[in-house]
Amino acid sequence: MKVHRFASVCCLSTIVWTTAGCTMMEEQATPRVAQKNVLSPEQVNTSLKKATTDSNNQQAIELEKQTERVTLGQTKTYDLSSLLSKHRVSIDPQYFYQNQIFYFDLQENKSVIYTYDTKRQHNKIVHATKNAIPMMTGTGAFLLWVETEQPTKTGVKWSIRQLKITTNQVTTLDVGESRFDTSPPRIDVTSTRVSWITQEATAQKTVSTIKTYSLKTGKITPLQSFILKTGKVRDGLFTYEHRDSDDGALYTSHFNNGKNVHVLETLDGAYKKELSGLIDFSRSGTYFALGTEGDAMFHPIGLDEQTLNYSASSAQTTIDGIQFLSNTKVVFREGIHQLMYADLQAKTVVPLTDFEELVSLPLLQDGKLTYSITNRKKSTLHVVKLLPSN
After folding, report:
1. Most CB atoms closer than 10 Å: which of 49, 169, 266, 363?
2. pTM value?
3. Across the 390 residues of the chain, what is the mean pLDDT of every consecutive 10-residue run?
4. Which H or E element spans position 291?
Protein backbone atom coordinates (compact mmCIF):
# COMPACT_ATOMS: atom_id res chain seq x y z
CA MET A 1 0.00 0.00 0.00
CA LYS A 2 1.37 3.37 -0.98
CA VAL A 3 1.44 5.89 1.85
CA HIS A 4 2.16 9.59 1.95
CA ARG A 5 4.09 11.75 4.39
CA PHE A 6 1.48 14.41 5.13
CA ALA A 7 -0.08 15.82 8.24
CA SER A 8 -3.78 15.48 8.86
CA VAL A 9 -4.94 19.08 9.19
CA CYS A 10 -6.97 20.42 6.27
CA CYS A 11 -7.12 24.07 5.29
CA LEU A 12 -8.61 26.02 2.41
CA SER A 13 -6.90 28.78 0.52
CA THR A 14 -8.31 31.37 -1.83
CA ILE A 15 -5.01 33.06 -2.63
CA VAL A 16 -4.91 34.41 -6.18
CA TRP A 17 -1.63 35.00 -7.95
CA THR A 18 -0.85 36.01 -11.49
CA THR A 19 2.40 35.36 -13.29
CA ALA A 20 3.53 37.43 -16.21
CA GLY A 21 5.75 36.06 -18.93
CA CYS A 22 3.65 33.03 -19.89
CA THR A 23 3.61 32.96 -23.67
CA MET A 24 1.32 31.17 -26.06
CA MET A 25 2.08 29.74 -29.49
CA GLU A 26 -0.37 28.34 -32.00
CA GLU A 27 0.24 25.49 -34.41
CA GLN A 28 -2.10 25.25 -37.41
CA ALA A 29 -3.37 21.78 -38.18
CA THR A 30 -2.27 19.81 -41.19
CA PRO A 31 -4.45 16.87 -42.16
CA ARG A 32 -1.91 14.20 -41.38
CA VAL A 33 1.89 14.31 -41.20
CA ALA A 34 3.92 16.96 -39.38
CA GLN A 35 7.63 16.96 -38.58
CA LYS A 36 10.06 14.05 -38.43
CA ASN A 37 10.23 12.34 -35.08
CA VAL A 38 13.52 12.17 -33.17
CA LEU A 39 13.98 8.61 -31.93
CA SER A 40 16.04 7.57 -28.94
CA PRO A 41 18.38 4.60 -29.29
CA GLU A 42 15.88 2.48 -27.30
CA GLN A 43 13.18 3.25 -29.86
CA VAL A 44 14.99 2.01 -32.94
CA ASN A 45 12.48 -0.48 -34.28
CA THR A 46 13.83 -3.92 -35.08
CA SER A 47 12.01 -6.21 -37.46
CA LEU A 48 11.33 -8.72 -34.69
CA LYS A 49 7.61 -9.03 -34.02
CA LYS A 50 6.49 -10.28 -30.63
CA ALA A 51 4.05 -13.16 -31.00
CA THR A 52 0.83 -12.56 -29.11
CA THR A 53 -2.42 -14.47 -29.28
CA ASP A 54 -6.06 -13.47 -29.05
CA SER A 55 -8.87 -15.24 -27.25
CA ASN A 56 -9.20 -17.76 -30.12
CA ASN A 57 -5.48 -18.63 -29.86
CA GLN A 58 -4.79 -16.89 -33.15
CA GLN A 59 -1.63 -14.86 -33.49
CA ALA A 60 -2.41 -11.18 -33.04
CA ILE A 61 -1.67 -8.76 -35.83
CA GLU A 62 1.26 -6.48 -35.00
CA LEU A 63 0.58 -2.81 -35.72
CA GLU A 64 3.09 -1.14 -38.02
CA LYS A 65 5.16 1.50 -36.24
CA GLN A 66 5.92 4.57 -38.33
CA THR A 67 8.33 7.38 -37.43
CA GLU A 68 6.71 10.58 -38.73
CA ARG A 69 4.71 12.61 -36.25
CA VAL A 70 1.00 13.08 -36.75
CA THR A 71 -1.01 16.27 -36.13
CA LEU A 72 -4.58 15.69 -34.96
CA GLY A 73 -5.84 19.27 -35.07
CA GLN A 74 -5.09 22.89 -34.31
CA THR A 75 -2.69 23.01 -31.37
CA LYS A 76 -2.20 25.84 -28.91
CA THR A 77 1.00 25.71 -26.87
CA TYR A 78 1.44 27.62 -23.62
CA ASP A 79 4.99 28.16 -22.35
CA LEU A 80 4.84 27.96 -18.55
CA SER A 81 8.59 27.90 -17.93
CA SER A 82 8.71 31.28 -16.15
CA LEU A 83 5.83 30.23 -13.93
CA LEU A 84 7.39 26.95 -12.92
CA SER A 85 10.77 28.51 -12.20
CA LYS A 86 9.20 30.16 -9.14
CA HIS A 87 7.06 27.25 -8.01
CA ARG A 88 7.90 23.56 -7.71
CA VAL A 89 4.97 22.47 -9.83
CA SER A 90 4.78 19.94 -12.64
CA ILE A 91 1.82 20.57 -14.93
CA ASP A 92 -0.14 17.33 -15.28
CA PRO A 93 -3.62 18.31 -16.52
CA GLN A 94 -6.42 16.52 -14.66
CA TYR A 95 -9.55 18.39 -15.79
CA PHE A 96 -10.57 21.04 -18.33
CA TYR A 97 -13.52 23.36 -17.66
CA GLN A 98 -14.19 26.18 -20.12
CA ASN A 99 -10.84 28.04 -20.20
CA GLN A 100 -9.54 26.52 -16.96
CA ILE A 101 -7.11 23.60 -16.75
CA PHE A 102 -6.94 22.04 -13.27
CA TYR A 103 -3.88 20.25 -11.91
CA PHE A 104 -2.32 19.59 -8.51
CA ASP A 105 1.12 19.59 -6.89
CA LEU A 106 2.23 17.22 -4.13
CA GLN A 107 4.79 18.93 -1.91
CA GLU A 108 6.58 17.64 1.17
CA ASN A 109 3.99 18.81 3.69
CA LYS A 110 0.99 19.90 1.64
CA SER A 111 -0.97 19.44 -1.58
CA VAL A 112 -2.16 22.34 -3.75
CA ILE A 113 -4.77 22.36 -6.52
CA TYR A 114 -4.23 25.00 -9.20
CA THR A 115 -6.17 26.20 -12.19
CA TYR A 116 -4.49 27.72 -15.24
CA ASP A 117 -6.69 30.09 -17.26
CA THR A 118 -5.67 29.67 -20.91
CA LYS A 119 -7.52 32.83 -21.97
CA ARG A 120 -6.10 35.17 -19.32
CA GLN A 121 -2.85 33.16 -19.00
CA HIS A 122 -2.54 33.16 -15.23
CA ASN A 123 -2.65 30.65 -12.38
CA LYS A 124 -4.82 30.52 -9.29
CA ILE A 125 -4.72 28.33 -6.19
CA VAL A 126 -8.22 26.91 -5.67
CA HIS A 127 -7.57 24.51 -2.78
CA ALA A 128 -4.72 23.69 -0.41
CA THR A 129 -4.52 20.93 2.19
CA LYS A 130 -2.00 19.26 4.46
CA ASN A 131 -3.36 15.93 3.26
CA ALA A 132 -2.13 14.06 0.19
CA ILE A 133 -4.12 14.11 -3.07
CA PRO A 134 -3.54 10.81 -4.90
CA MET A 135 -5.96 11.55 -7.76
CA MET A 136 -8.31 14.18 -9.21
CA THR A 137 -10.92 14.35 -11.96
CA GLY A 138 -14.03 16.33 -12.87
CA THR A 139 -17.35 16.44 -14.68
CA GLY A 140 -19.41 19.45 -15.70
CA ALA A 141 -18.92 22.29 -13.21
CA PHE A 142 -17.59 19.93 -10.54
CA LEU A 143 -14.00 19.10 -9.60
CA LEU A 144 -13.52 15.93 -7.53
CA TRP A 145 -10.52 14.47 -5.76
CA VAL A 146 -9.40 12.06 -3.02
CA GLU A 147 -7.53 13.24 0.10
CA THR A 148 -5.58 10.88 2.35
CA GLU A 149 -4.34 11.64 5.85
CA GLN A 150 -1.02 10.66 7.35
CA PRO A 151 -0.97 6.87 7.89
CA THR A 152 -1.42 5.49 11.39
CA LYS A 153 -0.94 2.04 12.92
CA THR A 154 -4.47 1.05 11.86
CA GLY A 155 -4.52 2.42 8.31
CA VAL A 156 -4.99 5.53 6.17
CA LYS A 157 -8.06 7.73 6.55
CA TRP A 158 -9.42 9.17 3.30
CA SER A 159 -12.14 11.51 2.07
CA ILE A 160 -13.74 12.24 -1.30
CA ARG A 161 -14.03 15.99 -1.90
CA GLN A 162 -16.02 18.01 -4.39
CA LEU A 163 -15.54 21.61 -5.55
CA LYS A 164 -18.32 23.42 -7.40
CA ILE A 165 -16.19 25.47 -9.79
CA THR A 166 -18.71 28.26 -10.30
CA THR A 167 -19.06 28.99 -6.57
CA ASN A 168 -15.77 27.66 -5.08
CA GLN A 169 -17.85 25.66 -2.57
CA VAL A 170 -16.04 22.55 -1.26
CA THR A 171 -18.01 19.63 0.20
CA THR A 172 -17.13 16.14 1.43
CA LEU A 173 -19.00 13.29 -0.29
CA ASP A 174 -17.63 10.26 1.58
CA VAL A 175 -15.04 9.27 4.22
CA GLY A 176 -13.42 6.03 5.24
CA GLU A 177 -10.24 4.27 6.27
CA SER A 178 -8.05 1.95 4.19
CA ARG A 179 -6.89 -0.94 6.38
CA PHE A 180 -5.11 -4.27 5.87
CA ASP A 181 -3.30 -3.17 2.70
CA THR A 182 -6.40 -1.94 0.89
CA SER A 183 -6.14 1.29 -1.11
CA PRO A 184 -8.11 4.55 -0.97
CA PRO A 185 -10.88 4.88 -3.58
CA ARG A 186 -10.41 6.11 -7.14
CA ILE A 187 -13.10 8.33 -8.63
CA ASP A 188 -14.71 7.70 -12.00
CA VAL A 189 -17.18 10.09 -13.65
CA THR A 190 -19.80 10.39 -16.36
CA SER A 191 -21.76 13.49 -17.33
CA THR A 192 -24.44 12.73 -14.72
CA ARG A 193 -22.82 10.75 -11.91
CA VAL A 194 -19.70 9.93 -9.94
CA SER A 195 -18.66 6.47 -8.76
CA TRP A 196 -16.01 4.91 -6.53
CA ILE A 197 -15.24 1.67 -4.64
CA THR A 198 -14.91 1.54 -0.86
CA GLN A 199 -13.20 -1.36 0.85
CA GLU A 200 -14.04 -2.15 4.47
CA ALA A 201 -11.39 -4.58 5.69
CA THR A 202 -10.94 -6.64 8.83
CA ALA A 203 -8.63 -9.52 9.61
CA GLN A 204 -11.36 -11.93 8.45
CA LYS A 205 -12.82 -10.32 5.32
CA THR A 206 -12.83 -7.37 2.92
CA VAL A 207 -16.12 -5.97 1.62
CA SER A 208 -15.81 -3.97 -1.63
CA THR A 209 -18.80 -1.74 -2.41
CA ILE A 210 -19.41 0.19 -5.62
CA LYS A 211 -21.09 3.51 -4.83
CA THR A 212 -22.59 6.07 -7.20
CA TYR A 213 -23.32 9.75 -6.55
CA SER A 214 -25.96 11.59 -8.59
CA LEU A 215 -24.94 15.11 -9.58
CA LYS A 216 -28.62 16.00 -10.00
CA THR A 217 -30.03 14.71 -6.71
CA GLY A 218 -26.87 14.72 -4.56
CA LYS A 219 -27.72 11.20 -3.38
CA ILE A 220 -25.15 8.43 -2.84
CA THR A 221 -26.39 4.93 -3.69
CA PRO A 222 -24.55 1.62 -3.04
CA LEU A 223 -24.79 -0.41 -6.26
CA GLN A 224 -23.16 -3.74 -5.47
CA SER A 225 -20.92 -5.36 -2.85
CA PHE A 226 -18.34 -8.14 -3.12
CA ILE A 227 -16.87 -10.16 -0.24
CA LEU A 228 -13.37 -11.61 0.01
CA LYS A 229 -12.72 -13.92 2.96
CA THR A 230 -9.16 -13.30 4.18
CA GLY A 231 -8.51 -16.14 6.62
CA LYS A 232 -5.88 -18.83 6.15
CA VAL A 233 -7.24 -19.47 2.63
CA ARG A 234 -8.60 -16.55 0.65
CA ASP A 235 -11.94 -17.09 -1.04
CA GLY A 236 -14.25 -14.66 -2.81
CA LEU A 237 -13.91 -11.57 -4.96
CA PHE A 238 -11.83 -8.41 -4.57
CA THR A 239 -12.44 -5.34 -6.77
CA TYR A 240 -9.59 -3.16 -8.05
CA GLU A 241 -11.27 -0.63 -10.30
CA HIS A 242 -14.67 0.30 -11.71
CA ARG A 243 -14.99 2.38 -14.88
CA ASP A 244 -18.47 3.88 -14.97
CA SER A 245 -20.50 4.23 -18.16
CA ASP A 246 -23.61 2.71 -19.68
CA ASP A 247 -21.47 -0.33 -20.55
CA GLY A 248 -18.87 0.12 -17.82
CA ALA A 249 -16.00 -2.20 -16.90
CA LEU A 250 -14.88 -3.89 -13.71
CA TYR A 251 -11.38 -5.20 -12.88
CA THR A 252 -11.48 -7.83 -10.15
CA SER A 253 -9.49 -10.60 -8.49
CA HIS A 254 -11.23 -13.96 -8.02
CA PHE A 255 -10.02 -16.25 -5.22
CA ASN A 256 -11.07 -19.90 -5.08
CA ASN A 257 -9.46 -22.05 -2.37
CA GLY A 258 -6.47 -19.73 -2.32
CA LYS A 259 -5.98 -19.66 -6.11
CA ASN A 260 -6.19 -16.22 -7.67
CA VAL A 261 -7.32 -15.12 -11.15
CA HIS A 262 -7.57 -11.50 -12.35
CA VAL A 263 -10.60 -10.76 -14.54
CA LEU A 264 -11.50 -7.73 -16.64
CA GLU A 265 -15.10 -7.61 -17.81
CA THR A 266 -17.76 -5.24 -19.06
CA LEU A 267 -20.98 -4.95 -17.09
CA ASP A 268 -23.03 -5.56 -20.24
CA GLY A 269 -21.37 -8.97 -20.71
CA ALA A 270 -19.79 -8.09 -24.06
CA TYR A 271 -16.24 -8.74 -22.86
CA LYS A 272 -14.67 -10.93 -20.19
CA LYS A 273 -11.01 -11.98 -20.04
CA GLU A 274 -8.62 -13.47 -17.51
CA LEU A 275 -5.36 -11.54 -17.45
CA SER A 276 -2.50 -10.31 -15.29
CA GLY A 277 -0.05 -7.42 -15.36
CA LEU A 278 -2.68 -4.88 -16.38
CA ILE A 279 -1.61 -1.23 -16.07
CA ASP A 280 -4.43 0.59 -17.87
CA PHE A 281 -7.52 -0.17 -19.92
CA SER A 282 -10.16 1.62 -21.95
CA ARG A 283 -13.07 0.73 -24.20
CA SER A 284 -14.60 2.04 -27.42
CA GLY A 285 -17.69 0.70 -29.16
CA THR A 286 -15.68 -1.91 -31.05
CA TYR A 287 -12.39 -2.45 -29.20
CA PHE A 288 -11.12 -3.06 -25.66
CA ALA A 289 -7.62 -1.63 -25.19
CA LEU A 290 -5.20 -3.03 -22.59
CA GLY A 291 -1.95 -1.42 -21.50
CA THR A 292 0.76 -3.62 -19.96
CA GLU A 293 4.53 -3.69 -19.66
CA GLY A 294 5.81 -3.90 -23.21
CA ASP A 295 2.51 -4.03 -25.10
CA ALA A 296 -0.72 -2.29 -26.03
CA MET A 297 -3.37 -4.83 -27.02
CA PHE A 298 -6.63 -4.12 -28.79
CA HIS A 299 -9.28 -6.84 -28.51
CA PRO A 300 -12.29 -6.57 -30.89
CA ILE A 301 -15.76 -6.51 -29.34
CA GLY A 302 -18.55 -7.96 -31.47
CA LEU A 303 -16.33 -7.99 -34.56
CA ASP A 304 -15.01 -10.91 -36.59
CA GLU A 305 -11.51 -9.50 -36.35
CA GLN A 306 -8.19 -10.57 -34.87
CA THR A 307 -6.61 -8.95 -31.84
CA LEU A 308 -4.18 -6.14 -32.65
CA ASN A 309 -0.91 -5.63 -30.77
CA TYR A 310 1.65 -2.86 -30.47
CA SER A 311 5.08 -3.76 -29.08
CA ALA A 312 6.68 -0.97 -27.09
CA SER A 313 10.34 0.01 -27.42
CA SER A 314 11.29 -2.46 -24.68
CA ALA A 315 9.61 -5.23 -22.71
CA GLN A 316 9.81 -3.06 -19.56
CA THR A 317 8.21 0.05 -21.12
CA THR A 318 4.73 0.72 -19.74
CA ILE A 319 1.64 1.61 -21.77
CA ASP A 320 -0.93 3.86 -20.07
CA GLY A 321 -3.11 6.94 -20.59
CA ILE A 322 -5.29 5.15 -23.17
CA GLN A 323 -7.84 7.51 -24.74
CA PHE A 324 -10.16 6.49 -27.60
CA LEU A 325 -10.81 9.40 -29.99
CA SER A 326 -13.26 7.23 -31.93
CA ASN A 327 -14.06 3.52 -32.20
CA THR A 328 -10.84 2.80 -34.08
CA LYS A 329 -8.50 5.71 -33.29
CA VAL A 330 -6.70 5.87 -29.96
CA VAL A 331 -3.98 7.84 -28.17
CA PHE A 332 -1.75 6.35 -25.46
CA ARG A 333 1.49 7.08 -23.63
CA GLU A 334 4.57 4.91 -24.14
CA GLY A 335 6.71 5.01 -21.01
CA ILE A 336 6.84 8.56 -19.67
CA HIS A 337 8.52 10.04 -22.72
CA GLN A 338 6.11 9.99 -25.68
CA LEU A 339 2.46 9.99 -26.78
CA MET A 340 1.48 7.66 -29.61
CA TYR A 341 -1.51 7.57 -31.99
CA ALA A 342 -2.92 4.26 -33.27
CA ASP A 343 -5.26 3.88 -36.25
CA LEU A 344 -6.75 0.42 -35.79
CA GLN A 345 -8.32 0.41 -39.25
CA ALA A 346 -5.05 1.25 -40.97
CA LYS A 347 -3.17 -0.94 -38.44
CA THR A 348 -0.53 1.73 -37.84
CA VAL A 349 1.01 3.52 -34.87
CA VAL A 350 2.69 6.93 -35.24
CA PRO A 351 4.19 9.39 -32.72
CA LEU A 352 2.02 12.27 -31.55
CA THR A 353 4.95 13.91 -29.72
CA ASP A 354 8.72 13.73 -29.99
CA PHE A 355 10.68 11.66 -27.47
CA GLU A 356 10.75 14.03 -24.48
CA GLU A 357 12.15 14.05 -20.96
CA LEU A 358 8.64 13.85 -19.48
CA VAL A 359 5.21 13.76 -21.11
CA SER A 360 2.06 13.80 -18.96
CA LEU A 361 -0.88 11.47 -19.34
CA PRO A 362 -3.22 12.81 -22.04
CA LEU A 363 -6.56 14.34 -21.02
CA LEU A 364 -9.42 13.96 -23.51
CA GLN A 365 -12.42 16.19 -22.94
CA ASP A 366 -14.96 18.15 -25.02
CA GLY A 367 -13.19 17.50 -28.30
CA LYS A 368 -9.80 18.63 -26.95
CA LEU A 369 -6.68 16.63 -26.14
CA THR A 370 -4.50 18.23 -23.45
CA TYR A 371 -1.04 17.21 -22.25
CA SER A 372 2.17 18.75 -20.93
CA ILE A 373 5.83 18.33 -21.89
CA THR A 374 8.74 18.99 -19.54
CA ASN A 375 12.38 19.19 -20.64
CA ARG A 376 14.73 20.32 -17.86
CA LYS A 377 13.53 23.81 -16.92
CA LYS A 378 11.22 24.22 -19.91
CA SER A 379 7.58 23.22 -19.48
CA THR A 380 4.83 23.62 -22.05
CA LEU A 381 1.11 22.89 -22.03
CA HIS A 382 -0.48 21.70 -25.29
CA VAL A 383 -4.20 21.85 -26.13
CA VAL A 384 -5.23 20.13 -29.38
CA LYS A 385 -8.64 20.94 -30.87
CA LEU A 386 -9.31 17.63 -32.56
CA LEU A 387 -10.36 17.52 -36.20
CA PRO A 388 -13.80 15.97 -36.84
CA SER A 389 -12.11 13.15 -38.80
CA ASN A 390 -10.54 11.93 -35.57
Report:
1. 363
2. 0.81
3. 29 32 41 36 34 60 96 92 62 89 86 91 91 95 97 95 96 97 94 95 95 95 93 90 79 90 87 90 92 96 91 96 96 97 98 96 93 88 89
4. strand 287-291
